[in-house]
Write a sequence for this structure.
């Protein structure tokens, strides 16, 4: 860095739906000795305060579908109330990566596409070293913007990172961030509703040694603060950790990981939110792994009670696989938390009832997070409309919710899906 750090400041916006992304982002800024602060709520006052102290501000935020409308408001307010010569807005995350133009049209100056760990610090370093001249960054890989003629520009994508080279937490004493530890990124499946494989590609894994070191740091950080140290993970399919072949759990690696972590005085939450497990990975062999962990609930992506819909989704498993996972989990004294989606393209009312009937049957011993299909950018179904729900289906969902069989943000997702149409 050639310039004095006092000349600029990165403000990263904390939101409960997106803050996990800030851990690794903040760590990468720290590694590059780039000054940052984490801000919550009311970005205008934070930005203005920095400007009043002579800083040039780069405002960063990560997106998900659920934060889009509030992001739009924040960008609108920033653009309205703060001079563009004093603040630059840079947005990343799933939704921005999938539909950069939409985010730019909302008023963002730049979008970081895909992984931000390398792109974001490089973006800032280049900008700062070139006295905030925008043309200095326009050839950096992994970004999108509108040029001075209002034309959309997207630079070539970047190579994907090695998770072992990047820290997932920030130990900045003023802004510590310790999200669940990402075991893997990407997925070997290609479900048509899901952004993970289309944004991150095939899976990459954090090594057991690296995970162990991170857990040791979490213990050191949390021991003075908490009685129990809970270690949680991020994995699209936890039992897919270190798999060499799609669909074949790497039992040896999984048991090695869990045994290694069991040596510590911690509570291990494996296969729980924000992770999930595919049903066919729960087998007579892998079910035993749950003896090594603390959680008695396990999150499983069942997704539909209709084999035709599972096929349409490209899930690569059947209803029978879900039922087998249910039996195995229950037999081991574990409670399945199943995710189901209603309203995927081409789903008929009859198929919706198949799912709801199944949910009611499973609901005696399981819990269900019910979702409504939202077409997400960068997925094969991004331009597809959700299948509507008839009033009887909707009433049954209400009854299941009142019986506490289903939980989740169904109504909110329904609203988002219809707004997106
Ligand atoms: S839904 Fe799960 S299994 Fe399917 S592509 Fe997404 S992360 Fe992979």
């Amino acid at each position: 860095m050639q310039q004095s750090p006092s000349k600029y400041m990165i403000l990263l916006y904390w939101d409960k739906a997106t803050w996990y992304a800030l851990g690794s982002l903040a760590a990468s800024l720290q590694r590059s000795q780039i000054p940052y602060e984490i801000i919550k709520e009311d970005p205008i006052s934070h930005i203005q305060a920095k400007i009043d102290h002579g800083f040039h501000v780069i405002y960063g935020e990560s997106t998900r579908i659920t934060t889009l409308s509030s992001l739009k408001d924040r960008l609108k307010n920033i653009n309205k109330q703060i001079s563009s010569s004093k603040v630059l807005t840079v947005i990343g995350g799933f939704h921005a990566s999938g539909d950069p133009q939409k985010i730019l049209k909302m008023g963002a100056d730049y979008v970081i596409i895909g992984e931000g760990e390398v792109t974001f610090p490089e973006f800032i370093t280049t900008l700062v070293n070139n006295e905030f001249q925008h043309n200095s960054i326009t050839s950096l890989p992994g970004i999108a913007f509108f040029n001075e003629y209002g034309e959309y520009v997207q630079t070539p994508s970047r190579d994907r990172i090695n998770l072992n080279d990047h820290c997932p937490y920030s130990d900045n004493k003023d802004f510590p961030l310790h999200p669940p530890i990402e075991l893997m990124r990407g997925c070997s499946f290609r479900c048509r509703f899901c952004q993970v494989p289309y944004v991150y590609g095939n899976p990459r894994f954090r090594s057991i040694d690296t995970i162990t070191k991170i857990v040791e740091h979490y213990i050191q950080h949390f021991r003075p603060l908490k009685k129990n140290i809970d270690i949680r993970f991020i994995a699209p399919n936890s039992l897919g950790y270190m798999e060499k072949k799609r669909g074949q759990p790497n039992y040896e690696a999984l048991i090695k990981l869990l045994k290694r972590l069991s040596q510590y005085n911690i509570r291990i939450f494996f296969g729980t939110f924000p992770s999930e497990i595919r049903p066919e990975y729960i087998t007579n062999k892998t079910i035993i792994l749950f003896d090594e962990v603390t959680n008695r609930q396990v999150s499983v992506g069942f997704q539909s009670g209709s084999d035709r819909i599972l096929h349409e989704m490209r899930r690569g498993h059947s209803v029978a696989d879900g039922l087998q996972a249910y039996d195995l989990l229950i037999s081991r004294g574990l409670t399945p938390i199943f995710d189901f989606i209603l309203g995927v393209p081409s789903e008929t009312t009859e198929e919706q009832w198949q799912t709801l009937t199944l949910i009611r049957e499973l609901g005696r011993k399981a819990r269900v997070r019910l979702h409504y299909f939202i077409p997400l950018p960068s997925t094969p179904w991004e331009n597809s409309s959700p299948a509507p729900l008839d009033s009887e289906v909707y009433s049954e969902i209400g009854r299941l919710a009142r019986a506490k069989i289903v939980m989740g943000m169904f109504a909110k997702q329904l609203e988002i899906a219809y707004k997106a149409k």
